[in-house]
């Protein structure tokens, strides 16, 4: 056991990106008001999270849950040292984001050719060619751009994605000068061994890239995948308050890994996140109240590990 632990190198600190306001809400039947979104955003900032995806600038008819992203950005309080970003699909979306003062945008493409053709009638490389005007516009207007590779861990059409296929898309992003990249698991097909092997390959092959991992907890493997990602040398992960979310285009997709579950696990492991766990839990609880249904958050259901100890002490003091 001691030898096994000696071979594991855990990071001292992990960065959490909150995507609840975008990926968490885009699959909700209830359309939240701007005020409700701003309330949740303020709570996320108060919890100490420094990277927040506030929405997306897609066509309102395609994702009506994101139709008011402009208003959210216009009315939100901008806190120093907090990065506010949005998902954009094309140049029109980037122009909309710039018009309301956002300085960070995320482009996304599926690494699955079948998924791209089925949903966008384009191959991944054709989609990436369309990103060139976005990158040029961003450079002229001092907008930072990151990239996401969706279906990186598995595709409903193609199954597991070969690492060579992911590698090819990474190199296309690098040609565009984009060096912050997220490997996304919207289908929830990733497993820890796969995450470790591909993550390790990406870290060693592309040391200039800042890697982010984005997991959905569709089959209960997201926390294990995060552990595997850390062992591969990756220290930035997405989460969504209360475990809300799911991809509208993936049949049966459930929510993202809950931010509070990730923070709780890391806290128990002695890994710093800079996030106030009770405040993250309060954010998740408020999100659950607003959407009006149960959510996929373990900590919301069971509480923290330390709560059990405190309850035991309290019972002993009462005896």
Features:
319 residues; eight-stranded parallel β-sheet; 15 helices; 14% strand
Q: What is the CATH fold-level name?
A: TIM Barrel
How many structural domains are formed by the residues? 1
Roughly what fraction of the amino acids lie in strands? 5-15%
Report the order of strands and helices: HEHHEHEHEHHHEHEHEHEHHHH
Structure described in brief:
This protein has 15 helices and 8 strands. It has 319 residues and is of the alpha/beta class.
Describe this structure in words.
The chain has 319 residues and is an alpha/beta fold. The chain has a single domain, classed as TIM Barrel (Alpha-Beta Barrel), CATH 3.20.20.70. Helices cover 45% and strands 14% of the residues. The protein has helices at residues 2-6, 20-24, 34-46, 69-75, 91-99, 113-120, 124-129, 132-140, 163-175, 192-205, 222-231, 259-268, 277-291, 298-302, 305-318; strands spanning 15-18, 51-56, 83-87, 104-110, 144-150, 180-185, 210-215, 236-239. Helix 10 (192-205) runs parallel beside helix 11.
């Amino acid at each position: 056991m001691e030898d096994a632990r000696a071979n594991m190198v855990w990071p001292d600190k992990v960065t959490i990106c909150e995507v609840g306001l975008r990926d968490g809400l885009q699959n909700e039947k209830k359309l939240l008001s701007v005020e409700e979104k701003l309330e949740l955003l303020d709570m996320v900032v108060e919890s100490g999270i420094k990277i927040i995806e506030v929405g997306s600038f897609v066509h309102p008819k395609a994702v009506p849950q994101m139709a008011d992203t402009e208003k959210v950005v216009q009315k939100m309080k901008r806190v120093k040292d907090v990065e506010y970003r949005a998902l954009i699909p094309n140049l029109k979306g980037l122009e909309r984001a710039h018009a309301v003062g956002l300085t960070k945008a995320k482009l996304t493409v599926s690494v699955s050719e079948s998924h791209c053709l089925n949903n966008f009638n384009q191959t991944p490389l054709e989609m990436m060619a369309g990103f060139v005007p976005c990158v040029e516009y961003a450079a002229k207007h001092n907008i930072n751009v990151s990239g996401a590779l969706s279906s990186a861990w598995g595709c409903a059409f193609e199954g597991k994605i070969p690492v060579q296929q992911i590698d090819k898309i990474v190199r296309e992003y690098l040609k565009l000068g984009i060096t912050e990249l997220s490997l996304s698991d919207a289908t929830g097909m990733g497993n820890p061994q796969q995450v470790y092997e591909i993550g390790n390959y990406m870290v060693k092959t592309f040391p200039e890239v800042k890697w982010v991992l984005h997991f959905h907890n569709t089959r209960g493997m997201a926390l294990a995948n995060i552990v595997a990602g850390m062992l591969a040398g990756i220290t930035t992960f997405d989460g969504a308050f209360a475990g809300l979310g799911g991809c509208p285009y993936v049949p049966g997709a459930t929510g993202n890994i809950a931010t509070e579950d990730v923070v709780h696990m890391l806290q128990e492991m002695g890994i710093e996140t800079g996030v106030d766990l009770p405040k993250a839990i309060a954010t998740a609880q408020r999100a659950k109240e607003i959407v009006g249904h149960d959510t996929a958050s373990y900590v919301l259901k069971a509480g923290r590990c330390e709560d059990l100890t405190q309850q035991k002490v309290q019972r002993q003091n009462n005896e």
